[in-house]
Specification:
Elements (H helix, E strand, L loop, with lengths): L11 H5 L25 H18 L5 E12 L5 E14 L2 E9 L2 E2 L2 H23 L15 H4 L2 E11 L2 E10 L11 H4 L2 E8 L5 E8 L3 E4 L3 E17 L2 E15 L2 E16 L2 H5 L8
Antiparallel strand pairs: 1-2, 1-12, 2-3, 3-4, 5-6, 6-7, 7-8, 8-10, 9-10, 10-11, 11-12
Length: about 290
């Protein structure tokens, strides 16, 4: 579950329809041996970051926390001007062994009776499907478009160490990535976007946590998901913050999409923020204010 990067197409469906504790002691890991960092390469840094991310996943620490989310979806014209804005506020909390986002406000207003009823139906369906998969011993993927920071993702890329940079007080290695030559995995709908994307990783020199991911899709492609469309361009950035010594959590996401659906161009900018991270207490989180977008 850690570092659900949600690259490129994870928000196409949406588009169409911090605590800095640097200096805290980090648990000792054999995979994060820092005894000789003079010869560190991009491959070694990424491998250690993957090991740290896997440990976070296996610990299920994400399920100990809740947060408040705010989403803004802007429709853009050909000149980049905003023609429409939709705002959503939600609560993210553990449910049936997963993190669930419950919408509580739209455009600054509490949900209408009809909207609240639909939201409850959505939650009931989520619970039903999660339990059904568990009963069958099957893995449940609530959003099949999610992309995790794992070896399956990174093995498709060539990486290079291009320097260091401070991001929100974290001293980071900066790693470029671009698709490898030759045949790449193409088993999922998301793979076409991943195989066309280049970007950068900012990895904390303190504990190998991913602090930032930036990406840009370099080539358009056509797809058919209930409609004939071409994703012409996608560019985005996802930031993480260390909430506790073993837990890096997403705090901000910014994605711009340029689509063509049949003969109509569609441009969207999607921004998300997650605030008020704390141990699970959903009632308290519901009344806390959310930091708005600039």
């Amino acid at each position: 579950m850690m570092c659900r990067i949600l690259l490129c197409l994870a928000f196409v469906v949406t588009a169409l329809a911090p605590l800095d504790i640097t200096g805290q002691t980090v648990g000792t890991r054999a995979s994060l041996d820092r005894s000789d960092e003079s010869d560190l390469t991009a491959a070694v840094i990424v491998e250690r970051a993957l090991a740290r991310a896997a440990e976070q996943d296996e610990s299920l620490i994400e399920l100990e926390f809740e947060s408040v989310g705010e989403s803004k979806v802007e429709s853009l014209n050909g000149d980049g001007g905003v023609t429409k804005t939709e705002m959503t506020r939600s609560l993210r909390y553990p449910l049936e062994g997963f993190l669930y986002d419950e919408v509580v406000e739209k455009d600054g207003n509490t949900l209408s009776d009809d909207e609240a009823r639909k939201e409850l139906d959505r939650k009931d369906k989520f619970i039903e499907e999660a339990r059904a998969h568990a009963a069958r011993g099957e893995e449940y993927e609530p959003n099949e478009m999610d992309v995790g920071f794992d070896r399956e993702l990174m093995e498709r890329y060539e990486t290079s160490l291009v320097g260091s940079e401070v991001v929100r007080g974290h001293i980071c290695w900066v790693i470029n990535f671009e698709p490898r030559d030759g045949e790449l995995p193409d088993n999922r709908r998301m793979d076409k976007a991943l195989n066309r994307s280049t970007g950068r990783l900012w990895i904390s020199q303190d504990d190998y946590g991913v602090v930032r991911v930036a990406f840009e899709m370099q080539k358009p492609f056509r797809y058919l998901w209930g409609l004939v469309a071409t994703l012409r361009h996608a560019e985005g950035r996802l930031d993480f913050e260390r909430v506790e010594a073993e837990f890096w959590a997403p705090v901000a996401f910014d994605l711009t999409l340029d689509l063509r659906v049949f003969f109509k161009g569609i441009r969207r900018r999607i921004q998300q923020q997650w605030t008020d991270y704390g141990h699970h207490d959903r009632v308290a989180a519901a009344v806390k204010p959310v930091v708005g977008f600039p």
